[in-house]
Amino acid sequence: MHRNIRRLLVVGAHGDDETLGAGGTIARLADEGAVVSLCILTNDDGSRSATGAGVTDRTAAIELAAKTLGVERVRISEFGDNRLDTVSHLELNRVVEREVRDFEPDTILTTSMCDLSTDHALVSRAARVAGRPGKGSVQEVRTFEIRSATDVGEASGLPVAFRPNCWQRLDETHLDRKLEALRAYGKELEPWPNPRSERGVRALAEYRGSQISAGLAEAFEIVRVVH
Ligand SMILES: [Zn+2]
């Protein structure tokens, strides 16, 4: 089914969401000719360390990661990190709706409502609003999982859980690009056994791959698809 994706919009709260959640898939689809646009809603360092080696600010880190993955178009909003709950739904929805109107994606990938991060849940809602049925070009909306956000949400008694029903097979080269993109975010890569270590990221890809008898994969939950 992924071969039908021609215009992919990835919507995240923070620079690194796209890479942690769907970096391998973005690399694969870009290789296969899809045009990929990235929309990140926050851009400050309110609660996180800024950047990786050779990158001077968060914007540069996002752009470097995007380039590594094959993303052609990057849009970064300036809302505050961990403060999206202070932004009106109307304002948040408008930003993502504008991206959908301008870029005309057939598919949206976004964060999960199941994440403990309030920013992630709010962005997921805004992406669903922008991609709702009967509005524009969007035929499919999927959510992705982010280690130490989605799994922590599940382990914290939230009433919803991430239930993958879609797997994207990856080759080693796609995982390599995901890890290289993560390095743009530098200090957020932790040593093993942290879930956001390189080995932790590989372990999840191997686990998701083994669920479908493939070497490596990323898992998604399809919100809506029109064939
Ligand atoms: Zn995030």
From TrEMBL:
One GO MF term: hydrolase activity, acting on carbon-nitrogen (but not peptide) bonds, in linear amides
Lineage: Bacteria, Bacillati, Actinomycetota, Actinomycetes, Pseudonocardiales
Signal peptide extent: none
SUPFAM superfamilies linked to this entry: LmbE-like
Keywords from the UniProt entry: Zinc
Example GO biological process: glycoside metabolic process
Superkingdom, natural source: Bacteria
The protein's name in its UniProt record: N-acetylglucosaminyl deacetylase, LmbE family
